[in-house]
Amino acid sequence: MTTLVNVETKETRKKLLETALNLIWENNYESVGIAQICEQAGVTKGAFYHYFQSKADLVTAAFREYWQQIRLEMDRVFSSQNTPLERVDLYCQMLISKQQMRELQTGHVLGCPFISSGQNTQEKQLKQLAVSTVENILKYFISLINDAQHENLISKEVNAEDLARYMYEFIQGVLILARVKNDLQIIKNDLQPGILRILGL
């Protein structure tokens, strides 16, 4: 009996996390309410407040969990066993695949969940989560650049942190433009060539 209750508890929480992520990624934080999340998840408001104190708590938990999934893929993509060029290729493939999957599910290009969902909110914990996620992603890029410099593919005079930031800003620009125009082809056409040009590879 206890095991059954635990399973139901985990499933309810999982439904709330997945629904919040999907709704807010497709729309934005401000336009999605607790009632909408509960209705789509098939969960009562009472159950919602059993797990989370507020919408901000739920969304923060949902995006933290999503980042943990992405982090495992990033570890694989940016493994030192892959060459710098292979890492760029694998990263672009991963990004395009995720955007393609979301487009099939929703009919829309959604861009980056952390940026798309949090750019209009004043919730401090969401903004802090977005900032920490960016910092984590930059570490992967810096590692790639450092290894490319070690292999003399990129000049050692170039500041790796600056170059990683330029790379991230370009990627976000491509994702935002693709979302605004609802055109996945923008990501397919521009992402990898642009990254390679920024890196000088």
Keywords:
201 residues; mainly alpha; Tetracycline Repressor, domain 2; 9 helices; 0% strand; elongated
Task: Describe the 3D structure.
The chain has 201 residues and is mainly alpha-helical. It has a single domain, classed as Orthogonal Bundle (Tetracycline Repressor, domain 2), CATH 1.10.357.10. 78% of the residues lie in helices and 0% in strands. The chain contains nine helices and no strands. The model has no long low-confidence stretch (mean pLDDT 89).
Brief summary:
By secondary structure, this protein is an all-alpha fold. The chain is 78% helix and 0% strand.
Low-confidence stretches: none
Along the chain, the helix and strand elements come as: HHHHHHHHH
Tally of extended strands?
0
Radius of gyration: 19 Å
How many domains comprise the coordinates? 1
CATH class: Mainly Alpha
Please identify the structural class as seen in this structure: mainly alpha
- The number of helical elements comes to 9
Largest sheet: none
In the CATH scheme, what's the topology name?
Tetracycline Repressor, domain 2
The CATH homologous superfamily is termed: Tetracycline Repressor, domain 2
Any guess at the CATH architecture?
Orthogonal Bundle
Distance between the termini: 59 Å
The percentage of residues in β strands lies in under 5%
Question: What sort of overall outline do the alpha carbons produce when their principal axes are compared?
Answer: elongated
